[in-house]
Records
---
Amino acid sequence: MTQEKVVLNTNKWIDNYADYMYNYAIVRVNDSDLAKDLVQDTFFAGLKSAKNFQGKSTERTWLVSILKRKIIDYYRKINSKKGKAEVRMNFYEDGENEGNWLEERVPQSWNNASEKAIENEELKTQLESCIDALPEKYGMVFRMKTIQEFETEEICKELDITSSNLWVIIHRARTQLRKCMEDNWFNS
Amino acid sequence: MFKSFRITCNEATTICDKNQYGEATLLEKLKLNMHFIRCKICFSYTKQNMTLTKIYKGHAKSCKDIKHCMPPKDKELLKEELSKFNV
């Protein structure tokens, strides 16, 4: 029995899948230029390996699987960045106080917290600016878990990380965000 | 026995964060509540964390409704690039 050759409709890729893939990428990386680059790289990679497409999935599923790999590569790249991306620690790292709050990082009481928690545009702008100030990988995981509300398992699979790794990242992102919101919103 | 329930503030706040997504285990919640008895700072952190979760959820709701589309001019550029590759 001869196997039928599956032909990809590459001329229609942009019209059919660019928006879906761009949206897929941007909710994960939150950067339009980067999302465009990832989509472009995915299409090129797709063209290069078109002969490997066996038609077991749809064209879109196949392209998205390539895009997912590109996102993992990007995550690994930002994960290996040191220096600027390092976060100020909130807890003693050793000694008899190990794991306890550093004095200067102890949560302060908030002025009019309930009044300040009322949703408005100004609050959204401040929150976005605090999320943007997070190290890139923390921002990415925080957005996927908290803003896009992805399942833990899904994020771990997509970024190739363990769940304990995810919770450490979420914890660091949230403590840093809390401090930023405390300084710039609740006590400003 | 209770010694094994003793956790640091770092661990307590990690559990607290996990709990904001409803994913802390029963044992973790137990450890967290025992930690609160001796640590008012983490108790206050938790209260503030709940306020923040409310804010994040409100923000999530408005963000999730947005569907991003690639700008038409970028699509055209991409088409040109891909056509070069196809030649």
---
Amino acid sequence: MTAQENGYAIETFGLTKVFPDWWGRAKVVAVEELNLRVRYNEIYGFLGPNGSGKTTTLKMLLNLLYPTRGRALVLGGSTADGMVSRRLGYLPEESYLYKYLSARETLDFYGRLFGLPAQVRRSRIDSLLEMVGLTGMAHRPVGTFSKGMARRIGLAQALINDPDLLILDEPTSGMDPIGTRQIKDLLLLLARRGKTILLCSHLLADVEDVCDRIGILYGGKMQVEGPVRSLLQHGDRRQITTGPLSESALGRIRQIVEAEATQCEVATPMDRLEQFFIRIVTDAQQRKQPTSGAVSTTAIGGFLVEEPADTTHRVLDRLVDKPVGPVAAGAAAVAGVEPTVTQPPAVEDRGLLEKLAHGTASSDAVQTDVTTSVPQPQPTPPAAEVKKDVLESLLGHKPAADGSTEPTRSDKPGDGRNV
Amino acid sequence: MYRVWAVARVTLAQAVRMRVAAVIIVMLLVLLPVMSMALEGDKTLQGQLQTFASYGLSLTSVLLSILTILVSTHTVTTDLARKHIYLVASKPIRRFEILIGKLLGVVALDVLLLGTFGAIIYGLTILVPHITDAPPDQVARAEHEFFTSRVRLETPVDKEKIDRLVEESYQKLLSEDRMPEGFNEWQIRDMIRREVQSAEATIGPSRVKRWEFRNVAVRDPNEVLYVRYKLRAIPQPAEDQAVANWRLGDFRTLDTGRLTSETRPYYVSRKDALSTTLEFAAPADVVAPDGYVALEFFNDPSQNYWSIIPSEVQLLYRSGTFTGNFWRVVAMILVRLVFLAAVGVSVSTWLSFPVAILICLAVLMTGTINGFIAESIDSLGQTLGFVYKFTVKPLLWFLPKFDGDFNPTRFVVDGRTLQWLVLGRAFLTTGVVRSAALMLFGIWVFSRRELAKAST
């Protein structure tokens, strides 16, 4: 078990794939000398433009394509080995589900392939259907689903065996922003529970939100690899976030900054479209407006979050019972070339959903809490805080903090200013 | 095994929801009852029953063969083309289990549909005599010749004897230097052979010909034996009739000079129409305890002024029930479907959908006329035969025969027993050995090929 000793859930050695032409001559070098290493219990973002060799690499990891040279170890072995594939969950770039099976039949089929007993299968299917918000459509053929709904079932099938390693190819493609958000939260939660996730995505914002490390592939070769935080942070800049400030205070700050012989930019933060969208849809859901589509739910498959029975897992749990990675724990920040001082989001490090759900327009929200951070493009809630209670509040299952059902934003334009 | 069943269940679900399956099911559900009433045959009850059983079973067999080919090729090729296989193969299932699951799913569909339509045909066949007002003699005849299960015995042509006679005649011509000019050796031998065969089959005036049957397993000595035959006469009599003198019994006693015979011979003398299949009954106690019985034809010169050529001489006796025989025939059809499913699954592992279908249909058609092809090529000259022996013949041997004596519907139509031995042999050779060989080849290909397409 070399990989486990070295702490790699996935490890490739000079992995190369050449597609020959009809005459057997090398036509396309899809992947070249790739040495990919994904550690246990990390979320690894595998990025690259179309045709860069990402999917080919995944297919080689899954034994669907055979390497021309080199080899790949997944969980210390080959995925052709049932003992390895038993611990693996895979969501391909499109869902590739049997159109004539219903959502429930689909999950039942994949559950059977894992040899899950009927009772376990039933309870996991119920749990997963609830988690992906398709309980009401359990008996509808998957062929009638929208792409996003099919992705949800695809994700559910990848989780039916409670896998140790998840290989996800574009998991959020075709999903609405709430679904996307939910999946990101789920990934963070799963990583916290000790799972390893290899995430392929074109949606860079999603990758950035959840990944510990990323690798960028181009032309079949790894161009750059490393922790998201160290790759993205601007070490020569600082960002200060504040509550409302008077003009005189701003003036004094400018003076201080200019005294340091550097530049200062003042701006008022804007809402992200994602936040705005979630608020609108949340309002509609709280009004119980009927829909034939997927419903955003609060549930995370019970079996995925339940306490593991054996002590090994408990130890693992303790080990991972902290912020997932440096990026996930990063403070809220706004992308910018220039150093900025920002007036709040008032509650530091709270997830977007939580803010929307509970409402943060309390007196606390306008207190001048100043936080300083190295600028990073997007705020990411720590996994520990984006959980059931948050989602429940979002969906109106629990009253919001201020007693109203409509979430209130603390950071609406006008409330604060970017300095 | 649970993984195999999981794949089989999905394959069955897929097949049941295919439009072509629905069309075939509806077609059979409508056509079978209509056929049972509309087909009249030779306007007798037996004719109606035979025509319906023949058409009904043949139609069901052909349509289910086509459905089996479609489903078995479709289920594998679409899994590959639509990439369903990515999800399945990345689960803890071996590739051979996927293919066996596919095969099992198709076979389950066949069992389901063949069972259903077999029951419908059986039910309608039993119902027809009750809802048609056929005269009692026709009902009795149908009961006697259709709703029965009779073993049919034939005596094989003595090829060795014919070969010997051909050789003798040829050597005689050679030694007497009477070889016809303008012909080569093979042509001369062929002419001699035809003469010898004709002479062997012909019974001249005052001559006797004997057919010997062994292993006649009549359960009850009170049973009845049936002799079926067809007569021709040379020269052709004006009235198109001839007198047939038959005798059945154990004549080995006379041959060996022993006077004690354990059976009593049975004599039949009747005037028969020529070139028509005829039948007479005889008591079963003519059969010796060791299962031997001989049939003799005596061409009485006082009654016939021509040579008689009997053909298709058969001995029949009851050996079971119509119901048992009917379902053995259905099981024989199932063996064919299992083989076709194995062909479909196997070739789909490396061929695309249209090509796989084409191959399967070619196999089905070749099987349907396999006996005919084999006979045609067998009659080719020795030179061509040599090439054939090492090329087409092994291929034809590998493909099962669906025609001639291997066409199961004829057993029901003739009320002929499809023996367990024959069914068992077909099951073993076609349903197990041939199908397993095909599946092993498919598994070998499927386990080695890349399941994903070459794309980046």
---
Amino acid sequence: MTPAVELLAVDKVFPGPVQALDGIELTVGAGEFVSLIGPSGCGKSTLLRVVADLEQPTGGTVRVSGKPASQARLDQDYGIAFQQAGLLEWRTVAENVELPLQVHGVPKARRRERAAELLEMVGLTEFARSRPGELSGGMQQRVAIARALAPSPSLLLMDEPFGALDEMTRERMQAELLRITGETGAAVLFVTHSIPEAVVLSDRVVVMSPRPGRITEIVPGRRPGTGTELAPDDVEDVRESAAFFTAITDVREALRKGHE
Amino acid sequence: MTPRRALPRGEGIGAAYLPPVVFGVGALVAWQVLVVALGVPSFLLPAPSAIAEQVGAQLGVIMSTASVTGGNALIGLVAGFVIGVALALLAAWSRLFGELATPVVLAASAVPIVALAPVFTTMFGSTTEVPRQLVVTVVVVVPVFVSTARGLRQVQPVHADLMTALAASPWQASRFVRLPGAVPYIVTGLRLAAPAAVIASIVAEYFGGQQNGLGSRISSAAANTAYARAWAFVVASIVLGLLFHLAGLLLERLATRSRPA
């Protein structure tokens, strides 16, 4: 199968000059969940934006679903969720979910159907006609994820989507996200600065160091039920397992190494 | 949800509106008493009772002249609103046009309407309402343009990224994000322009043309030393201005409800 993302010797230099990314080599397999973790300013968000074709790399090759990043963006091969939900507050929840389909000229009836499907998946069916302002932060973020999934992308890009949520909501959202990605089979590139979050969600945790942004180490994560049927309960088991704490320690040490 | 200014609990609307109403009535009574007690001549200041009497006597004329002045204000308001929004849209889409048009529109705000009105009246002749409507249009364009342009610039970075990620065309980005996002700013511009439209409409009548509006009646009554009658038309002008102000306020409320501030 074509890998979801292939990055070959990717550099990004911002005028200044600031070397944000230096020689990034990374492949995200189809259906794989990969987290990018590192201290602020390590370029993890920049890397995600390069994959999304929101920033142009100054060197190297970026391929998404086997195509150049710009073509993948035009083809809607990825869905994206940001730290802020970024919902359009003048549209209803369902209309927000429909937005990517509307931009790409999907007929209204089909859009409605798909939005209803997705809202059921994120458990917000009863809020379809509400305005985003009436929803809690966690619910808004679920709407944003549903919106990202609307065109059935094979890749989901997420930039600290749970960063602004409280710890309890955050853990619930992580379980939700695992269930959803299990159902859709989409690969995920997930930016976070939370070690437990990266470990519990991921197949692989990519640890980055700042100035210049480099990959220092790739640690195996503890995504529950990988390759088998996924049960939400597994997440709680994982959080309490010894292997989880070992992985957390590994990531923490890799982060510390990057700082020296 | 839009945070509404809370009224004091229990006392409701009365508590918010009663003090200004009492104050207003008190001021009228004081005015009446002073005019009568001091024997102020009516060319200086007619008593409220005399003005009220004139309002009653001239009610038919007041209604017809108010509808002419109000009609001019409304036509100019709509025309100025459409032009202001259209110019702001063009300025947002084309940087060159924005750089050319913005200073010109802002300069228009410095043009005193008293300077424009006689020129327009001579240009279009005194038997038509067009010069008056044009004066209103010029006055309205500026605030609508300024606030619309500001609204169109206020695109949240996350929304801009979203539109790029969705590969939306510039027209789609305007339609889905820019324009709806600017609506609160656009209606605020309209709300600010509405009472100014009435003022412009009245002032434009001071410079000739048909004697069918509130402004022309005020100047002719004053010229004929019918001071109480002049004041009656002034009262009608105030009411007309308030009506436009309230209509603008209502539109703004309608357009901005269910939005965060």
